[in-house]
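Q: Is it fine to ask for two folds in a single conversation?
A: Yes, each is treated on its own. Send the first.
Q: Here.
A: Result:
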Amino acid sequence: MKSPGLSNKPIASCTSATCENCPAGNTLHCHFSRRDLMYFLFIAVPPFVIGGVGIYITHSWMLVPWLVMIIGFFGFIEIRVMCSHCPHYAEPDRSLRCWANYGSPKLWKYRPGPMTLMEKVVFWGGFISIWGYPLLFLLLGLQWFLLIVYVLFCAGFFIALRMFFCSQCMNFACPLNTVKYETRRLFFERNPDIAKAWGADIKA
């Protein structure tokens, strides 16, 4: 999908000359915009704020390990195991320009195709560790109200993520991706190198 205000220049991996009349354009979001980033932060930030408050109330100094985990995972580890498979990673910028990991440095090699089993284990392990960390302190501190609010906001974040972002994301390698097969096939037709990496049959 071409976001408002962006040019018709396709992404680096695409062989089409223009985005006009792209059959996948209404269902797949190939271009980044700052509006996308704002929408993502709107649903992603509240759980972190609530979780951070819960940790601070129980043991304020334990915020430091959590912040290190967040920066290390989302800024570097997740980029390697998941984002390096994304077509956004093939763009010429030195840092990522996408709604979820905007500004993260591209330290790794671009590797189109699906994630390995170990990469998925690391991906899910990071997610569980980061979102599970505040739960420990909310339980230890008997902060039942904050615990309920935190769980609700986390659930809301993942539901919104899957419905409004993952359903349009061109990183098919991500375990959270929900783009339908037909849309993927249309994308593969215009991105043959990615299709080859996936071993995809792009025939209609």
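Q: Second one now.
A: Result:
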Amino acid sequence: MTRHTAIFRVVMRSTAAAAAALACSLASADPGYDHRGPERGPPPAAHQHMDARFSHNHAYYDRGYFVNSLPRDRLVFSRGPNRYFYSGGVWYAPRGAGFVVVGAPFGLFVPVLPPYYSTVWFGGVPYYYANDTYYMWSAQDNGYEVVAPPSDAVNAAPDAAPPAPPTTTKLFIYPRNNQTSDQQSKDKYECHAWATSQTGFDPTAAGGNVPPDQFNGKSADYYRAMASCLQGRGYSVE
């Protein structure tokens, strides 16, 4: 073996070792964050909490937690001089050179629910719950309003409710063509309306607006149609 060959092998071993060490470092740095927010699975990290209310059982960033950058799929909202960013059930506000996790501002409307949500009923009215936040559907505004907790939620259990859509059918949507936030909201709503008309399944209605024995099949059909519509409009769907 020549001297140059020996040096080359030493360099390759060193490079491989450094790459492995870097991979381990990245994997352990923040295992719950992949620009879509914490997912179900491992216990929450130090800056996360597990929301177990109504058996929601999903991890979210703690309010007050600071991030340098926002998730790719965030939506932007303005209220007077204030701006808010929404992604995966987590709300952010600008803070210095980055962003801080805040409570959801009451009265704002979002076009889509968080990827994981729990449907709870109080007084015969459905609320959509995630990350200590309640949403209500408004047909007039074509969106979900952030509302104060229902009075019954403080001391009473929610009404019996039909099962929520399986979490495995939730979609992660990313714009491929630099669509604006307004365009994304419009596309998501129109694809939702189209998928509902094609399948008869409406995830915003009680039990999907289908018989219980058809829930799983119709739910899967709806999300396939939703994904197909969004992909046709220039989005990546996972």
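Q: Anything structural to flag on that second result?
A: Two points. The chain has two domains: 48-155, 167-237. Residues 75 and 218 are 28 Å apart (CA to CA).
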